[in-house]
Structure formats: structure tokens, C-alpha cells
């Protein structure tokens, strides 16, 4: 079954063609990072406008890279939730129009759940470039998933496709968001994740001992206190108090201090995620563990996990961790195995739909 995936929930316009939920035939991502970098973050109006400009060429490119025509496409999957409403609308409207025009079944899917399904992509067409470092096999159930993006930080235990329990989530900022905000304090560019990771390479992760939030559930996260702790430490380091304008702080830092702050922040943010994951493994004994979302590209996260997990872990390539449409097509495939398509005019955007509201497999009788 060949599925065209469409993704436009935030600041990437993406389309991809995936066969049987695992074989990547094409993967086109048009990132708006350069446009938003000048504002230090995503501007929703600008994002929506940019999606409109590029969505048709991106879809055309995905079909042409995959060497398929509309006759070859069995279904369309589109990310309809969660995300920026204006951004989601562009992808959803394109998908609805194409489904109607070409009489294709349409599957709306959840973006964060899609991130997790990037881990099911294990093959790519020989002609497709670049060659990605794909996992050697699909994850097995029960599967523990750590989903960490710019908007979400969640630990989810999947019993099977579409059947899962949300073990915990962030109570305030998502971890990617914390990377973005701390990067800003340090005068590093947007998006903050890759910028902090790269500055941290030359820093000392133990230069500053930032506190780990103590919460009632071991599987919930909180990064807002850590963000404030970094701000206070920067102020102390450069000898100013909280009345000093924070946008003027970066100019007071030298490269050594910047690198040490980046490394110390990254170390504890990642440790927080790894502690929770390790505890969930001990309690639930999953057969596999996957990480997903933009922050899953973080090398320190991969290093700490590999060091502390009781078994080896297969990682999706970073190209499939950040927003893409291959993950949407992969999830669409698995949904299509058990669910009828959604009537085109019932596919609507749901900007704040939680994964908890999207269980979709047919319950087992046991
Ligand atoms: O999944 P994603 O591309 O978009 C959302 O669904 O939010 O995630 C983007 C987030 C941003 O906050 C970015 O700073 C973070 O992922 N990110 C990283 C890294 N690469 C991207 N965070 C930490 N380390 C990275 N290498
Ligand atoms: Zn995402």
C-alpha cells in the first residue's frame, strides 16, 4: 500500500511517499527556519503564508522523487492535529482537495503520534538520496516511546498499534521549547536545540549544577524551573540582578561561559528525560524503546540513553526526527489496516488535540 503523507503543522512544509508503512520512496521537507530565525521563533501568520506558497511544489516533488503517479497512490494521510491552526489548515485543505480530486481514501493523523511512527521506517528506495541511517527492524510491542519536540514531552507506553497509555508529560514547557528559550538567553540562534548541542560540545556539563524538578509522578516533566535557574545563573555569572534587561545578557557572555551554560543545561535536561525513561523501563518492561520528535535528534540524549538503557536502542535518523511527512504516511498506513478512511469533509484541524484522545485500534477481546 502506497501512501502520500502531508505535514504542515508548524514551520516545515513536507510531503513524502511511503510503501507499507516502512519503505521510504521520497521525503521532501521545505523548512522555514531561515525565515523565522530573524524573529527568534515561529511567527504563525508568516508560517501559514509560507506553507501556501510551497505546498503544491513540495507535493509534486515528493511524487516525482518517488517516481509515482496518482494511479499508484492508495491513500493520503495528513497531520490534522496538534499545531498552529493556520499552518495545519494548509496541509489539511491540500489533502482534502487531492483526496476529492483523485478519489483517494483520506486518513487524518496526530502529529506527535506520527513522530513516534518515524521509528517504523526501516527501508528506503535504492535511488533515494541521501542514504539514511535507518533502524534495522521495526520496534516490537510493548513499546515505550519518549516523544520530545518543540511542543511536547511525553512518555507513552504502546501495547499495540494505536493502543497506548500516556505515562506522563510536561506540566509546563516542552523540552525543545526549553532548548529554544535557553538558546535565546545565550544569544544562540533559533532553533535552539541544534545551536545548544553544538555550543555544548566545547563546554563543561558540570560547570553549573542546575536542579532537576521534583514532581509527584516520576513520568511527568517540568522544564520551566530549569529555564529560570539558567537565567539566574547567567545573571550571577555576569554580575547583574533580575532588573537587568535579559536581551542584553548574551553580549556580556564570553564563548567559554556560553559553552558551559549550554553544556550544563543540556546535561540536566537530557538526564531528566533519561531518568524517567529508565524508571519506566524498570516498571513496565517494554520489548522496545523509541525516541521521537525534534529533540530526539540530540546526540547527548542518545549518548546518555545508550549508556543507561539495559538493552541497545535503534534510533531513527535525525532527518526523520524533526518534522517530516514520512512519519505521517507511516502512521497512516497502520491506521488504514484497521480503520475506514475519514469522509473528506469530516477531516478538520484540531490544534490542541491530545494523543490521549486518539486511540484508534480495535480493542482486543482478551
Ligand atoms: O518535532 P519538531 O521538529 O517540531 C515540533 O513538533 O515541535 O521539534 C522542534 C524542536 C525545537 O524546539 C528544536 O529546538 C528541537 O526540536 N531540536 C532539538 C535538536 N534539534 C531540534 N533539541 C535538542 N537537540 C537537538 N539536536
Ligand atoms: Zn514535530
Describe this structure in words.
With 366 residues, this protein is α/β, with parallel strands linked by helices. Helix content is 40%, strand content 17%. It has helices at residues 33-37, 44-65, 85-102, 111-117, 175-186, 192-200, 224-238, 255-284, 299-308, 318-321, 326-338, and strands at residues 2-7, 12-19, 23-31, 75-81, 106-110, 123-124, 143-148, 153-160, 163-169, 288-292. It has a 6-stranded mixed beta sheet with strand order 5-4-1-2-3-6, sandwiched between helices. A 4-stranded mixed beta sheet has the order 9-8-7-10, with helices on both faces. A hairpin with a 2-residue loop joins strand 8 and strand 9 (163-169). Helix 5 runs parallel beside helix 7, helix 5 (175-186) packs antiparallel against helix 8 and helix 8 packs across helix 9. It binds 5'-O-[(R)-(carboxyoxy)(hydroxy)phosphoryl]adenosine and zinc ion. Residues 10, 149-151, 176-177, 179-180, 191-194, 197, 293-295, 297-298, 322-323 line the site of 5'-O-[(R)-(carboxyoxy)(hydroxy)phosphoryl]adenosine.
CATH topology value of the largest domain = Nucleotidyltransferase, domain 5
Helix content: 25-40%
Chemical compounds bound to the protein: 5'-O-[(R)-(carboxyoxy)(hydroxy)phosphoryl]adenosine, zinc ion
Biggest β-sheet strands, sense, barrel: 6 strands, mixed
What is the β-strand count?
Answer: 10
State the end-to-end distance: 29 Å
Q: What is the strand arrangement across the widest sheet?
A: 5-4-1-2-3-6
Beta-strand residue fraction:
15-25%
CATH homolog superfamily of the largest domain: ATPase, nucleotide binding domain
Mean pLDDT: 95
User: Any idea how many domains?
Assistant: 2
Uncertain ranges: none
String of helices and strands: EEEHHEHEHEEEEHHHHEHHH
Structural class: alpha/beta
Just give the CATH class of the largest domain: Alpha Beta
Tally of helical segments: 11
Shape: globular
**What is the annotated CATH architecture of the largest domain?**
2-Layer Sandwich
Amino acid at each position: 500500500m502506497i501512501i502520500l503523507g502531508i505535514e504542515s503543522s508548524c514551520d516545515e512544509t513536507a510531503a513524502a511517499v511511503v510503501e507499507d508503512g516502512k519503505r521510504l520512496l521520497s521525503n521532501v521537507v521545505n523548512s522555514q527556519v531561515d525565515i523565522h530565525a530573524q524573529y527568534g521563533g515561529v511567527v504563525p501568520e508568516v508560517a501559514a503564508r509560507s506553507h501556501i506558497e510551497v505546498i503544491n511544489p513540495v507535493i509534486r516533488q515528493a511524487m516525482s522523487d518517488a517516481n509515482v503517479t496518482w494511479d499508484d497512490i492508495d491513500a493520503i494521510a495528513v497531520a490534522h492535529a496538534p499545531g498552529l491552526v493556520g499552518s495545519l489548515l494548509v496541509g489539511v485543505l491540500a489533502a482534502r482537495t487531492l483526496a476529492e480530486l483523485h478519489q483517494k481514501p483520506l486518513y487524518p493523523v496526530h502529529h506527535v503520534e506520527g513522530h513516534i511512527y518515524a521509528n517504523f521506517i526501516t527501508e528506503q528506495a535504492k535511488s533515494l538520496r541521501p542514504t539514511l541511517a535507518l533502524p534495522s527492524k521495526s520496534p516490537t510491542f510493548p513499546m515505550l516511546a519518549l516523544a520530545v519536540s518543540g511542543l511536547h514531552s511525553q512518555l507513552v507506553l504502546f501495547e499495540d498499534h494505536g493502543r497506548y497509555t500516556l505515562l506522563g508529560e510536561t506540566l509546563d514547557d516542552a523540552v525543545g521549547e526549553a532548548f529554544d528559550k535557553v538558546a535565546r538567553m545565550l544569544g544562540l540562534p533559533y532553533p535552539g536545540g541544534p545551536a545548544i548541542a553544538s555550543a555544548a560540545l566545547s563546554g563543561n556539563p558540570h560547570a553549573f549544577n542546575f536542579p532537576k524538578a521534583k514532581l509527584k509522578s516520576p513520568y511527568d516533566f517540568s522544564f520551566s524551573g530549569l529555564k529560570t535557574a539558567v537565567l539566574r545563573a547567567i545573571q550571577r555569572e555576569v554580575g547583574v540582578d533580575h532588573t537587568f534587561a535579559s536581551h542584553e545578557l548574551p553580549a556580556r557572555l564570553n564563548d567559554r561561559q556560553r559553552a558551559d551554560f549550554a553544556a550544563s543545561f543540556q546535561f540536566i535536561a537530557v538526564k531528566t528525560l533519561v531518568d524517567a525513561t529508565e524508571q519506566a523501563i524498570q516498571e513496565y518492561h517494554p520489548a522496545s524503546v523509541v525516541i521521537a520528535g525534534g529533540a530526539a535528534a540530540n546526540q547527548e540524549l542518545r549518548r546518555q540513553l545508550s549508556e543507561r538503557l539495559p538493552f541497545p536502542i535503534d534510533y531513527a535518523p535525525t532527518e526523520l526526527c524533526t518534522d517530516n511527512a514520512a512519519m505521517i504516511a507511516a502512521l497512516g498506513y497502520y491506521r488504514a489496516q484497521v480503520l475506514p478512511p475519514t469522509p473528506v469533509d469530516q477531516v478538520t484541524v484540531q490544534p490542541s488535540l491530545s494523543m490521549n484522545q486518539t486511540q484508534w485500534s480495535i480493542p482486543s477481546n482478551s
